[in-house]
Write a structure and sequence with these properties.
Number of strands: 23
Largest sheet: 8 strands, mixed
CATH superfamily of the largest domain: Alpha/Beta hydrolase fold, catalytic domain
Strand order of the largest sheet: 1-2-4-3-6-7-10-11
Shape: elongated
CATH architecture of the largest domain: 3-Layer(aba) Sandwich
CATH class of the largest domain: Alpha Beta
Oligomer: single chain
Number of domains: 3
Strand content: 15-25%
Radius of gyration: 26 Å
Distance between the termini: 30 Å
Protein backbone atom coordinates (compact mmCIF):
# COMPACT_ATOMS: atom_id res chain seq x y z
CA UNK A 1 0.00 0.00 0.00
CA UNK A 2 1.40 3.38 -0.96
CA UNK A 3 2.05 6.18 1.51
CA UNK A 4 -0.73 8.17 -0.07
CA UNK A 5 -3.13 5.30 0.48
CA UNK A 6 -2.08 5.03 4.12
CA UNK A 7 -3.37 8.55 4.65
CA UNK A 8 -6.39 8.11 2.45
CA UNK A 9 -9.02 8.47 5.17
CA UNK A 10 -8.02 11.90 6.27
CA UNK A 11 -6.42 14.45 3.94
CA UNK A 12 -5.97 14.00 0.22
CA UNK A 13 -2.78 15.30 -1.36
CA UNK A 14 -4.12 15.35 -4.91
CA UNK A 15 -7.75 15.67 -6.00
CA UNK A 16 -8.76 14.73 -9.53
CA UNK A 17 -12.18 15.28 -11.12
CA UNK A 18 -12.68 12.76 -13.88
CA UNK A 19 -15.65 12.11 -16.17
CA UNK A 20 -16.56 8.42 -16.11
CA UNK A 21 -19.04 6.71 -18.45
CA UNK A 22 -20.48 3.32 -17.46
CA UNK A 23 -22.89 1.31 -19.61
CA UNK A 24 -25.90 -0.20 -17.86
CA UNK A 25 -27.56 -3.53 -18.70
CA UNK A 26 -29.75 -1.89 -21.35
CA UNK A 27 -26.86 -0.29 -23.24
CA UNK A 28 -27.59 3.17 -21.84
CA UNK A 29 -24.75 5.37 -20.62
CA UNK A 30 -24.49 6.38 -16.97
CA UNK A 31 -22.31 9.49 -16.90
CA UNK A 32 -20.66 10.58 -13.67
CA UNK A 33 -17.93 12.67 -12.08
CA UNK A 34 -15.31 10.89 -9.98
CA UNK A 35 -13.83 13.02 -7.21
CA UNK A 36 -10.63 11.00 -6.92
CA UNK A 37 -8.50 11.54 -3.82
CA UNK A 38 -6.23 8.52 -4.12
CA UNK A 39 -8.26 6.57 -1.56
CA UNK A 40 -9.42 3.00 -2.17
CA UNK A 41 -12.65 3.84 -0.34
CA UNK A 42 -15.42 5.28 -2.48
CA UNK A 43 -18.83 6.79 -1.72
CA UNK A 44 -21.44 6.68 -4.51
CA UNK A 45 -24.01 9.49 -4.58
CA UNK A 46 -27.42 9.11 -6.29
CA UNK A 47 -29.71 11.98 -7.32
CA UNK A 48 -33.49 12.22 -7.07
CA UNK A 49 -36.57 12.48 -9.31
CA UNK A 50 -35.90 14.31 -12.61
CA UNK A 51 -32.67 15.59 -11.12
CA UNK A 52 -29.00 15.09 -11.92
CA UNK A 53 -25.54 14.63 -10.50
CA UNK A 54 -25.03 18.40 -10.78
CA UNK A 55 -27.80 19.45 -8.38
CA UNK A 56 -26.57 21.25 -5.28
CA UNK A 57 -27.03 18.43 -2.69
CA UNK A 58 -25.08 15.92 -4.80
CA UNK A 59 -22.26 18.33 -5.62
CA UNK A 60 -21.87 19.55 -2.03
CA UNK A 61 -21.85 16.03 -0.61
CA UNK A 62 -19.18 14.95 -3.12
CA UNK A 63 -16.98 17.91 -2.20
CA UNK A 64 -17.50 17.23 1.52
CA UNK A 65 -16.15 13.69 1.12
CA UNK A 66 -13.37 14.98 -1.14
CA UNK A 67 -12.22 17.48 1.51
CA UNK A 68 -12.00 14.61 3.99
CA UNK A 69 -9.83 12.57 1.64
CA UNK A 70 -12.57 10.11 0.67
CA UNK A 71 -13.22 9.56 -3.03
CA UNK A 72 -16.79 10.14 -4.25
CA UNK A 73 -18.69 9.40 -7.45
CA UNK A 74 -21.88 11.25 -8.42
CA UNK A 75 -23.65 10.08 -11.55
CA UNK A 76 -26.81 10.45 -13.63
CA UNK A 77 -29.31 7.61 -13.75
CA UNK A 78 -30.39 6.61 -17.27
CA UNK A 79 -32.75 9.19 -18.74
CA UNK A 80 -31.48 11.99 -16.51
CA UNK A 81 -28.78 14.63 -16.59
CA UNK A 82 -26.79 15.66 -19.62
CA UNK A 83 -27.02 12.43 -21.60
CA UNK A 84 -30.67 11.73 -22.41
CA UNK A 85 -30.98 9.38 -25.33
CA UNK A 86 -34.69 10.04 -25.91
CA UNK A 87 -36.46 12.91 -27.67
CA UNK A 88 -38.82 13.13 -24.67
CA UNK A 89 -37.25 12.88 -21.19
CA UNK A 90 -38.54 9.77 -19.46
CA UNK A 91 -38.85 8.52 -15.90
CA UNK A 92 -37.37 5.17 -14.92
CA UNK A 93 -38.74 2.84 -12.25
CA UNK A 94 -37.46 2.22 -8.74
CA UNK A 95 -35.88 -1.15 -9.46
CA UNK A 96 -34.34 0.03 -12.74
CA UNK A 97 -32.40 2.68 -10.82
CA UNK A 98 -31.35 0.14 -8.19
CA UNK A 99 -29.97 -1.96 -11.06
CA UNK A 100 -28.20 1.08 -12.53
CA UNK A 101 -26.59 1.54 -9.12
CA UNK A 102 -25.61 -2.14 -9.14
CA UNK A 103 -23.74 -1.66 -12.41
CA UNK A 104 -21.90 1.35 -10.97
CA UNK A 105 -20.94 -0.55 -7.80
CA UNK A 106 -19.67 -3.53 -9.82
CA UNK A 107 -17.67 -1.20 -12.10
CA UNK A 108 -15.70 0.24 -9.20
CA UNK A 109 -15.42 -3.08 -7.37
CA UNK A 110 -13.79 -4.36 -10.55
CA UNK A 111 -11.18 -1.63 -10.05
CA UNK A 112 -10.47 -2.96 -6.53
CA UNK A 113 -12.36 -0.10 -4.88
CA UNK A 114 -14.03 -0.56 -1.51
CA UNK A 115 -17.55 0.87 -1.63
CA UNK A 116 -17.71 2.60 1.73
CA UNK A 117 -21.30 3.82 1.32
CA UNK A 118 -24.07 4.64 -1.13
CA UNK A 119 -25.97 7.87 -0.57
CA UNK A 120 -29.27 8.74 -2.24
CA UNK A 121 -31.38 11.91 -2.27
CA UNK A 122 -35.18 11.83 -2.75
CA UNK A 123 -35.96 9.09 -5.31
CA UNK A 124 -32.27 8.20 -5.09
CA UNK A 125 -32.90 7.42 -1.42
CA UNK A 126 -35.40 4.77 -2.48
CA UNK A 127 -32.90 3.42 -5.01
CA UNK A 128 -30.16 2.92 -2.39
CA UNK A 129 -32.60 1.24 0.02
CA UNK A 130 -33.82 -1.13 -2.69
CA UNK A 131 -30.18 -1.84 -3.53
CA UNK A 132 -29.46 -2.71 0.11
CA UNK A 133 -32.46 -5.06 0.18
CA UNK A 134 -31.13 -6.97 -2.85
CA UNK A 135 -27.33 -6.87 -2.47
CA UNK A 136 -25.45 -7.05 0.81
CA UNK A 137 -22.04 -5.87 -0.39
CA UNK A 138 -22.35 -2.28 0.89
CA UNK A 139 -22.62 -1.90 4.65
CA UNK A 140 -23.48 1.81 4.94
CA UNK A 141 -26.59 3.34 3.32
CA UNK A 142 -27.76 6.96 3.56
CA UNK A 143 -31.34 7.80 2.58
CA UNK A 144 -31.90 11.56 2.29
CA UNK A 145 -35.56 12.59 1.98
CA UNK A 146 -36.64 9.30 0.42
CA UNK A 147 -40.33 8.48 0.06
CA UNK A 148 -41.88 5.60 2.02
CA UNK A 149 -45.41 5.79 0.62
CA UNK A 150 -44.83 5.54 -3.13
CA UNK A 151 -48.53 5.77 -4.05
CA UNK A 152 -48.72 9.23 -2.50
CA UNK A 153 -48.23 12.01 -5.03
CA UNK A 154 -49.07 10.00 -8.16
CA UNK A 155 -52.55 11.51 -8.56
CA UNK A 156 -51.14 15.00 -8.00
CA UNK A 157 -48.61 14.55 -10.81
CA UNK A 158 -50.51 12.32 -13.24
CA UNK A 159 -54.17 13.07 -12.52
CA UNK A 160 -56.90 11.04 -10.87
CA UNK A 161 -57.50 9.05 -14.07
CA UNK A 162 -53.83 8.01 -14.44
CA UNK A 163 -54.67 4.29 -14.51
CA UNK A 164 -57.05 4.67 -17.46
CA UNK A 165 -54.56 6.86 -19.36
CA UNK A 166 -51.63 4.51 -18.85
CA UNK A 167 -53.72 1.53 -20.01
CA UNK A 168 -54.94 3.40 -23.10
CA UNK A 169 -51.68 4.95 -24.30
CA UNK A 170 -48.92 3.02 -22.50
CA UNK A 171 -47.46 6.28 -21.20
CA UNK A 172 -48.40 9.67 -19.75
CA UNK A 173 -46.72 12.92 -20.75
CA UNK A 174 -46.54 15.36 -17.86
CA UNK A 175 -46.73 18.97 -19.05
CA UNK A 176 -45.96 22.32 -17.48
CA UNK A 177 -48.31 25.33 -17.35
CA UNK A 178 -47.33 26.33 -20.90
CA UNK A 179 -48.35 22.92 -22.25
CA UNK A 180 -44.77 21.80 -22.89
CA UNK A 181 -43.95 18.19 -22.09
CA UNK A 182 -41.53 18.04 -19.18
CA UNK A 183 -41.18 14.28 -18.93
CA UNK A 184 -42.80 10.98 -19.85
CA UNK A 185 -43.96 8.28 -17.46
CA UNK A 186 -44.13 4.85 -19.12
CA UNK A 187 -46.49 2.09 -18.09
CA UNK A 188 -43.51 -0.06 -17.13
CA UNK A 189 -42.04 2.55 -14.80
CA UNK A 190 -45.44 3.31 -13.22
CA UNK A 191 -46.17 -0.38 -12.62
CA UNK A 192 -42.68 -0.73 -11.16
CA UNK A 193 -43.39 2.06 -8.69
CA UNK A 194 -46.84 0.76 -7.72
CA UNK A 195 -45.48 -2.75 -7.27
CA UNK A 196 -42.62 -1.64 -5.00
CA UNK A 197 -43.29 -2.77 -1.43
CA UNK A 198 -41.15 -0.32 0.55
CA UNK A 199 -41.99 -1.93 3.87
CA UNK A 200 -40.91 -5.39 2.68
CA UNK A 201 -37.74 -3.97 1.12
CA UNK A 202 -36.82 -2.25 4.40
CA UNK A 203 -37.37 -5.42 6.40
CA UNK A 204 -35.15 -7.33 3.96
CA UNK A 205 -32.13 -5.09 4.58
CA UNK A 206 -29.73 -7.19 6.71
CA UNK A 207 -28.96 -6.27 10.30
CA UNK A 208 -25.30 -5.84 9.37
CA UNK A 209 -26.17 -2.90 7.09
CA UNK A 210 -26.15 0.49 8.81
CA UNK A 211 -28.82 2.84 7.45
CA UNK A 212 -29.20 6.56 8.11
CA UNK A 213 -32.36 8.44 7.12
CA UNK A 214 -32.12 12.25 7.01
CA UNK A 215 -35.26 14.35 6.57
CA UNK A 216 -36.17 18.04 6.81
CA UNK A 217 -39.09 19.15 8.95
CA UNK A 218 -40.45 21.45 6.23
CA UNK A 219 -39.91 19.13 3.25
CA UNK A 220 -42.44 20.36 0.70
CA UNK A 221 -42.46 17.16 -1.40
CA UNK A 222 -42.09 14.23 0.99
CA UNK A 223 -43.66 14.56 4.46
CA UNK A 224 -41.42 13.94 7.45
CA UNK A 225 -43.77 11.13 8.54
CA UNK A 226 -42.22 8.99 5.80
CA UNK A 227 -38.86 9.18 7.59
CA UNK A 228 -40.46 7.84 10.76
CA UNK A 229 -41.94 4.93 8.78
CA UNK A 230 -38.45 3.97 7.56
CA UNK A 231 -37.24 3.86 11.17
CA UNK A 232 -39.99 1.37 12.06
CA UNK A 233 -38.98 -1.29 9.55
CA UNK A 234 -35.21 -1.06 8.89
CA UNK A 235 -33.41 -3.29 11.44
CA UNK A 236 -30.20 -1.26 11.92
CA UNK A 237 -31.43 2.32 11.49
CA UNK A 238 -30.53 5.85 12.57
CA UNK A 239 -32.94 8.75 12.05
CA UNK A 240 -31.92 12.41 11.85
CA UNK A 241 -34.56 15.14 11.49
CA UNK A 242 -33.13 18.49 10.36
CA UNK A 243 -35.16 21.34 11.83
CA UNK A 244 -36.30 23.86 9.21
CA UNK A 245 -34.81 22.02 6.22
CA UNK A 246 -36.73 21.74 2.94
CA UNK A 247 -36.50 18.96 0.35
CA UNK A 248 -33.31 20.33 -1.26
CA UNK A 249 -31.78 21.44 2.09
CA UNK A 250 -31.47 24.90 0.53
CA UNK A 251 -30.30 26.64 3.70
CA UNK A 252 -28.90 23.53 5.41
CA UNK A 253 -26.24 22.23 3.00
CA UNK A 254 -23.39 22.38 5.53
CA UNK A 255 -25.46 20.67 8.20
CA UNK A 256 -26.53 17.94 5.79
CA UNK A 257 -22.94 17.32 4.67
CA UNK A 258 -21.72 17.13 8.28
CA UNK A 259 -24.44 14.63 9.27
CA UNK A 260 -23.82 12.35 6.30
CA UNK A 261 -20.02 12.57 6.49
CA UNK A 262 -19.89 11.73 10.20
CA UNK A 263 -22.21 8.75 9.77
CA UNK A 264 -20.26 7.35 6.84
CA UNK A 265 -16.89 7.86 8.54
CA UNK A 266 -17.94 5.70 11.49
CA UNK A 267 -17.76 2.82 9.02
CA UNK A 268 -14.20 3.81 8.13
CA UNK A 269 -12.64 3.78 11.63
CA UNK A 270 -13.67 0.85 13.79
CA UNK A 271 -12.26 0.22 17.25
CA UNK A 272 -13.56 -3.32 17.81
CA UNK A 273 -11.19 -6.25 17.94
CA UNK A 274 -11.02 -7.35 14.37
CA UNK A 275 -14.11 -8.43 12.45
CA UNK A 276 -13.57 -10.68 9.47
CA UNK A 277 -13.61 -7.99 6.79
CA UNK A 278 -11.08 -5.98 8.78
CA UNK A 279 -8.84 -9.02 9.08
CA UNK A 280 -8.96 -9.56 5.32
CA UNK A 281 -7.85 -5.92 4.98
CA UNK A 282 -5.07 -6.47 7.55
CA UNK A 283 -3.92 -9.41 5.45
CA UNK A 284 -4.02 -7.20 2.36
CA UNK A 285 -1.74 -4.67 4.10
CA UNK A 286 0.72 -7.46 4.97
CA UNK A 287 0.74 -8.83 1.42
CA UNK A 288 1.27 -5.39 -0.10
CA UNK A 289 4.19 -4.82 2.28
CA UNK A 290 6.00 -7.93 1.07
CA UNK A 291 5.07 -7.39 -2.58
CA UNK A 292 6.83 -4.03 -2.40
CA UNK A 293 9.91 -5.93 -1.25
CA UNK A 294 9.70 -8.01 -4.45
CA UNK A 295 8.57 -11.16 -2.63
CA UNK A 296 6.42 -13.79 -4.32
CA UNK A 297 3.47 -14.63 -2.05
CA UNK A 298 3.36 -18.37 -2.58
CA UNK A 299 0.34 -18.96 -0.32
CA UNK A 300 -1.71 -17.62 2.56
CA UNK A 301 -2.70 -20.02 5.31
CA UNK A 302 -5.35 -19.32 7.94
CA UNK A 303 -6.49 -21.24 11.01
CA UNK A 304 -10.03 -20.99 12.43
CA UNK A 305 -11.19 -17.35 12.05
CA UNK A 306 -7.99 -16.83 10.08
CA UNK A 307 -9.35 -19.40 7.64
CA UNK A 308 -12.31 -17.11 7.01
CA UNK A 309 -9.93 -14.18 6.60
CA UNK A 310 -7.91 -15.91 3.86
CA UNK A 311 -11.09 -17.05 2.06
CA UNK A 312 -12.49 -13.50 2.19
CA UNK A 313 -9.15 -12.18 0.97
CA UNK A 314 -9.17 -14.55 -2.01
CA UNK A 315 -12.70 -13.44 -2.92
CA UNK A 316 -11.67 -9.76 -2.95
CA UNK A 317 -8.14 -9.79 -4.33
CA UNK A 318 -7.59 -12.46 -6.97
CA UNK A 319 -4.37 -11.26 -8.57
CA UNK A 320 -1.85 -11.57 -5.75
CA UNK A 321 -2.10 -15.11 -4.33
CA UNK A 322 -2.96 -18.34 -6.14
CA UNK A 323 -2.83 -20.78 -3.20
CA UNK A 324 -5.15 -20.55 -0.17
CA UNK A 325 -5.22 -22.91 2.81
CA UNK A 326 -8.25 -22.76 5.12
CA UNK A 327 -7.69 -24.73 8.33
CA UNK A 328 -10.87 -25.21 10.40
CA UNK A 329 -12.60 -22.05 9.15
CA UNK A 330 -16.27 -21.49 9.95
CA UNK A 331 -18.85 -21.59 7.13
CA UNK A 332 -22.04 -21.01 9.12
CA UNK A 333 -21.31 -17.76 10.96
CA UNK A 334 -24.85 -17.39 12.32
CA UNK A 335 -24.54 -20.74 14.11
CA UNK A 336 -21.13 -19.72 15.43
CA UNK A 337 -22.65 -16.54 16.90
CA UNK A 338 -25.35 -18.53 18.70
CA UNK A 339 -22.83 -21.05 20.03
CA UNK A 340 -20.48 -18.37 21.32
CA UNK A 341 -22.92 -15.68 22.46
CA UNK A 342 -26.15 -17.53 23.25
CA UNK A 343 -29.44 -17.86 21.39
CA UNK A 344 -30.63 -14.46 22.64
CA UNK A 345 -27.60 -12.60 21.29
CA UNK A 346 -29.75 -10.35 19.07
CA UNK A 347 -31.69 -9.02 22.07
CA UNK A 348 -28.53 -8.55 24.18
CA UNK A 349 -26.59 -6.71 21.50
CA UNK A 350 -29.54 -4.38 20.84
CA UNK A 351 -29.97 -3.65 24.56
CA UNK A 352 -26.35 -3.08 25.57
CA UNK A 353 -24.40 -2.56 22.35
CA UNK A 354 -21.96 -5.32 23.32
CA UNK A 355 -21.78 -8.80 24.84
CA UNK A 356 -19.14 -9.84 27.36
CA UNK A 357 -18.29 -13.53 27.00
CA UNK A 358 -17.26 -15.11 30.30
CA UNK A 359 -15.54 -18.35 31.27
CA UNK A 360 -16.84 -20.85 33.81
CA UNK A 361 -15.47 -18.78 36.68
CA UNK A 362 -17.40 -15.74 35.55
CA UNK A 363 -14.29 -13.92 34.34
CA UNK A 364 -14.64 -11.90 31.13
CA UNK A 365 -12.64 -13.48 28.31
CA UNK A 366 -13.50 -11.00 25.58
CA UNK A 367 -16.03 -8.42 24.44
CA UNK A 368 -18.04 -8.55 21.21
CA UNK A 369 -19.34 -5.14 20.08
CA UNK A 370 -22.47 -4.57 17.99
CA UNK A 371 -20.39 -3.40 15.01
CA UNK A 372 -18.20 -6.50 15.24
CA UNK A 373 -21.23 -8.79 15.38
CA UNK A 374 -22.95 -7.01 12.49
CA UNK A 375 -19.82 -7.48 10.42
CA UNK A 376 -19.77 -11.20 11.19
CA UNK A 377 -23.47 -11.69 10.40
CA UNK A 378 -23.09 -9.58 7.26
CA UNK A 379 -20.38 -11.84 5.88
CA UNK A 380 -21.84 -14.03 3.13
CA UNK A 381 -19.46 -17.00 3.19
CA UNK A 382 -21.21 -18.72 0.30
CA UNK A 383 -20.89 -15.64 -1.93
CA UNK A 384 -17.26 -15.19 -0.90
CA UNK A 385 -16.47 -18.79 -1.83
CA UNK A 386 -18.19 -18.45 -5.20
CA UNK A 387 -16.23 -15.26 -5.91
CA UNK A 388 -12.85 -17.02 -5.62
CA UNK A 389 -11.54 -17.41 -9.20
CA UNK A 390 -10.92 -20.79 -10.79
CA UNK A 391 -7.16 -20.19 -11.03
CA UNK A 392 -6.90 -19.96 -7.23
CA UNK A 393 -6.23 -23.36 -5.61
CA UNK A 394 -7.88 -23.77 -2.21
CA UNK A 395 -7.26 -26.48 0.39
CA UNK A 396 -9.61 -26.91 3.35
CA UNK A 397 -8.32 -29.00 6.27
CA UNK A 398 -10.58 -30.11 9.13
CA UNK A 399 -10.33 -32.38 12.13
CA UNK A 400 -12.99 -35.08 12.41
CA UNK A 401 -13.48 -34.35 16.14
CA UNK A 402 -13.23 -30.54 15.98
CA UNK A 403 -14.98 -29.37 19.14
CA UNK A 404 -15.47 -25.77 17.94
CA UNK A 405 -16.44 -25.98 14.26
CA UNK A 406 -18.34 -29.07 13.00
CA UNK A 407 -16.78 -30.96 10.12
CA UNK A 408 -19.93 -30.32 8.06
CA UNK A 409 -18.66 -26.78 7.50
CA UNK A 410 -15.69 -28.20 5.58
CA UNK A 411 -18.05 -29.97 3.20
CA UNK A 412 -19.92 -26.71 2.58
CA UNK A 413 -16.67 -24.97 1.62
CA UNK A 414 -16.05 -27.76 -0.90
CA UNK A 415 -19.51 -27.26 -2.44
CA UNK A 416 -19.00 -23.60 -3.34
CA UNK A 417 -15.28 -23.11 -4.05
CA UNK A 418 -14.49 -23.97 -7.68
CA UNK A 419 -10.88 -25.19 -7.44
CA UNK A 420 -11.03 -26.93 -4.08
CA UNK A 421 -9.32 -29.77 -2.22
CA UNK A 422 -10.72 -31.18 1.03
CA UNK A 423 -8.72 -33.07 3.64
CA UNK A 424 -10.31 -34.49 6.82
CA UNK A 425 -7.79 -35.40 9.52
CA UNK A 426 -9.14 -38.38 11.45
CA UNK A 427 -9.17 -37.80 15.22
CA UNK A 428 -7.90 -34.21 15.08
CA UNK A 429 -9.41 -31.49 17.28
CA UNK A 430 -9.67 -27.76 16.52
CA UNK A 431 -6.05 -27.02 17.52
CA UNK A 432 -4.71 -30.28 16.02
CA UNK A 433 -3.20 -30.96 19.45
CA UNK A 434 -1.99 -34.49 18.65
CA UNK A 435 -1.77 -34.00 14.89
CA UNK A 436 0.68 -31.12 14.43
CA UNK A 437 3.10 -33.09 12.26
CA UNK A 438 0.31 -34.46 10.07
CA UNK A 439 -1.19 -30.98 9.64
CA UNK A 440 2.17 -29.50 8.69
CA UNK A 441 2.81 -32.27 6.16
CA UNK A 442 -0.61 -31.83 4.49
CA UNK A 443 -0.28 -28.06 4.19
CA UNK A 444 3.36 -28.16 3.10
CA UNK A 445 2.74 -30.70 0.34
CA UNK A 446 -0.22 -28.74 -1.02
CA UNK A 447 1.68 -25.44 -1.05
CA UNK A 448 4.83 -26.94 -2.57
CA UNK A 449 2.89 -27.96 -5.68
CA UNK A 450 2.86 -24.23 -6.45
CA UNK A 451 6.66 -24.16 -6.63
CA UNK A 452 8.61 -24.80 -9.82
CA UNK A 453 10.71 -27.93 -9.66
CA UNK A 454 13.97 -26.02 -9.57
CA UNK A 455 12.67 -23.80 -6.78
CA UNK A 456 11.95 -26.54 -4.29
CA UNK A 457 15.60 -27.03 -3.34
CA UNK A 458 15.98 -26.27 0.39
CA UNK A 459 17.46 -22.84 1.08
CA UNK A 460 19.53 -21.99 4.14
CA UNK A 461 17.93 -20.21 7.09
CA UNK A 462 18.86 -16.54 7.42
CA UNK A 463 17.16 -15.97 10.77
CA UNK A 464 13.99 -14.91 12.55
CA UNK A 465 13.07 -11.25 12.29
CA UNK A 466 10.38 -9.19 13.99
CA UNK A 467 8.43 -7.16 11.41
CA UNK A 468 5.89 -4.42 12.15
CA UNK A 469 3.44 -3.38 9.41
CA UNK A 470 0.91 -0.57 9.67
CA UNK A 471 -2.61 -1.31 8.43
CA UNK A 472 -4.85 1.30 6.81
CA UNK A 473 -6.24 2.31 10.22
CA UNK A 474 -2.82 3.18 11.66
CA UNK A 475 -2.65 0.03 13.80
CA UNK A 476 0.49 -2.09 13.85
CA UNK A 477 0.45 -5.73 12.75
CA UNK A 478 3.40 -7.38 14.47
CA UNK A 479 4.82 -10.63 13.10
CA UNK A 480 7.80 -12.96 12.94
CA UNK A 481 9.48 -13.50 9.58
CA UNK A 482 11.13 -16.92 9.22
CA UNK A 483 13.61 -15.78 6.59
CA UNK A 484 15.34 -18.18 4.22
CA UNK A 485 17.15 -17.44 0.96
CA UNK A 486 13.94 -17.95 -1.02
CA UNK A 487 11.92 -15.12 -2.52
CA UNK A 488 8.76 -17.19 -2.04
CA UNK A 489 6.81 -16.39 1.10
CA UNK A 490 3.92 -18.09 2.88
CA UNK A 491 1.78 -15.90 5.17
CA UNK A 492 0.12 -17.57 8.16
CA UNK A 493 -2.99 -16.15 9.87
CA UNK A 494 -4.18 -17.10 13.36
CA UNK A 495 -7.72 -17.70 14.56
CA UNK A 496 -10.29 -16.19 16.90
CA UNK A 497 -8.75 -14.61 20.05
CA UNK A 498 -5.48 -16.29 19.14
CA UNK A 499 -2.02 -15.11 18.10
CA UNK A 500 0.96 -15.81 15.88
CA UNK A 501 2.53 -17.72 18.80
CA UNK A 502 -0.08 -20.49 19.08
CA UNK A 503 1.14 -23.99 18.20
CA UNK A 504 -0.47 -24.40 14.75
CA UNK A 505 1.00 -21.11 13.51
CA UNK A 506 4.47 -21.71 14.96
CA UNK A 507 4.69 -25.32 13.78
CA UNK A 508 3.54 -24.46 10.27
CA UNK A 509 6.10 -21.64 10.02
CA UNK A 510 8.92 -23.96 11.10
CA UNK A 511 7.73 -26.65 8.67
CA UNK A 512 8.06 -24.22 5.75
CA UNK A 513 11.35 -22.95 7.13
CA UNK A 514 12.80 -26.47 7.18
CA UNK A 515 11.87 -26.80 3.50
CA UNK A 516 13.70 -23.58 2.68
CA UNK A 517 10.48 -21.59 2.16
CA UNK A 518 10.19 -18.28 4.01
CA UNK A 519 7.14 -17.83 6.24
CA UNK A 520 5.56 -14.91 8.07
CA UNK A 521 3.18 -15.34 11.01
CA UNK A 522 1.58 -12.20 12.44
CA UNK A 523 -1.05 -10.89 14.84
CA UNK A 524 -4.19 -9.28 13.50
CA UNK A 525 -5.01 -5.89 15.04
CA UNK A 526 -6.43 -6.34 18.54
CA UNK A 527 -4.76 -9.73 19.07
CA UNK A 528 -1.49 -11.01 20.43
CA UNK A 529 0.08 -10.24 23.81
CA UNK A 530 -1.17 -6.68 23.91
CA UNK A 531 -4.66 -7.96 23.26
CA UNK A 532 -4.38 -10.16 26.34
CA UNK A 533 -3.40 -7.15 28.44
CA UNK A 534 -6.50 -5.25 27.35
CA UNK A 535 -8.73 -8.28 27.86
CA UNK A 536 -7.35 -8.77 31.40
CA UNK A 537 -7.97 -5.11 32.15
CA UNK A 538 -11.55 -5.37 30.86
CA UNK A 539 -12.21 -8.44 33.01
CA UNK A 540 -11.16 -6.56 36.17
CA UNK A 541 -12.49 -3.06 35.56
CA UNK A 542 -15.36 -3.55 33.12
CA UNK A 543 -17.72 -1.47 35.29
CA UNK A 544 -15.53 1.62 35.18
CA UNK A 545 -14.05 1.83 31.69
CA UNK A 546 -16.17 1.36 28.57
CA UNK A 547 -13.55 1.87 25.87
CA UNK A 548 -10.50 -0.23 25.10
CA UNK A 549 -8.21 0.68 22.22
CA UNK A 550 -5.55 -1.89 21.42
CA UNK A 551 -2.97 -0.70 18.91
CA UNK A 552 0.00 -2.97 18.26
CA UNK A 553 -0.40 -4.74 21.59
CA UNK A 554 0.32 -1.69 23.74
CA UNK A 555 -1.91 0.12 26.27
CA UNK A 556 -0.75 2.82 28.71
CA UNK A 557 -2.85 2.52 31.87
CA UNK A 558 -1.25 5.56 33.53
CA UNK A 559 -2.29 8.06 30.90
CA UNK A 560 -5.50 9.88 31.86
CA UNK A 561 -8.45 10.41 29.58
CA UNK A 562 -7.72 14.13 29.31
CA UNK A 563 -4.13 13.45 28.24
CA UNK A 564 -5.36 11.27 25.40
CA UNK A 565 -8.49 13.12 24.29
CA UNK A 566 -7.83 16.70 25.45
CA UNK A 567 -9.38 18.89 28.12
CA UNK A 568 -12.37 19.71 25.91
CA UNK A 569 -13.33 16.09 25.31
CA UNK A 570 -16.89 16.53 26.63
CA UNK A 571 -17.61 19.45 24.32
CA UNK A 572 -16.09 17.62 21.34
CA UNK A 573 -18.10 14.47 21.97
CA UNK A 574 -21.33 16.44 22.32
CA UNK A 575 -20.62 18.35 19.11
CA UNK A 576 -19.33 15.58 16.83
CA UNK A 577 -20.24 12.31 18.55
CA UNK A 578 -16.63 11.09 18.35
CA UNK A 579 -13.00 12.18 18.81
CA UNK A 580 -10.24 11.21 16.39
CA UNK A 581 -6.90 10.75 18.18
CA UNK A 582 -4.06 11.80 15.91
CA UNK A 583 -0.30 11.39 15.86
CA UNK A 584 2.23 14.22 15.47
CA UNK A 585 1.81 14.23 11.71
CA UNK A 586 -1.90 14.86 12.05
CA UNK A 587 -2.80 11.35 10.97
CA UNK A 588 -5.75 9.69 12.71
CA UNK A 589 -4.62 6.71 14.79
CA UNK A 590 -8.04 5.62 16.09
CA UNK A 591 -11.54 6.89 16.79
CA UNK A 592 -13.26 7.14 20.18
CA UNK A 593 -17.05 7.28 19.80
CA UNK A 594 -19.52 8.87 22.19
CA UNK A 595 -21.25 5.53 22.79
CA UNK A 596 -18.06 3.75 23.87
Amino acid sequence: MSEKQHDQSYVSAVVEHKRVVIQNRYGEKLVGILHGTGSDELVIICHGFRSSKDRVPMVNLAFAFERDGISAFRFDFAGNGQVIMKIVPYVTGQFVEAEDLRVVVEHFQGQQRFILAVVGHSKGGNAVLLYASRYNDVQTIVNIAGRFNLRRGIEGRLGTDFQEKIEQYGFIDVKNKKGKTEYRVTKESLMDRLATDTRAACQTIPLSCRVLTVHGTVDEFVPVEDAIEFSKYIPNHDLCIVEGADHEYTKHQSELASIVLNFVKTGLHKDESGPKSREAEDLHAVIEHFLREQRLILAVVGHSKGGNAVVNYASRYNDDVQIIVNISGCFNLNRWSKDMLGKDFHEKIEQYGFIDVKNRRGKIQYRVTKEDLMDILGTDTRAACQAIPLNCRVLTVYGSVDEIIPVEDAIQFSEYIFNHNLCIVEGADHEYTKHQSELASIVLNFVKTGLHKDESVPKSLLGHKKVSIENRYGEKLVGILHETESKELVIICHGFRSSKDRNPMVNLAFAFEREGISAFRFDFAGNGKGGSVVINYASRYNDNVQIFVNISGCFNFNRSTEDILGKHLHEKLQQYGFIDVKNRRGKTKYRVTKDT
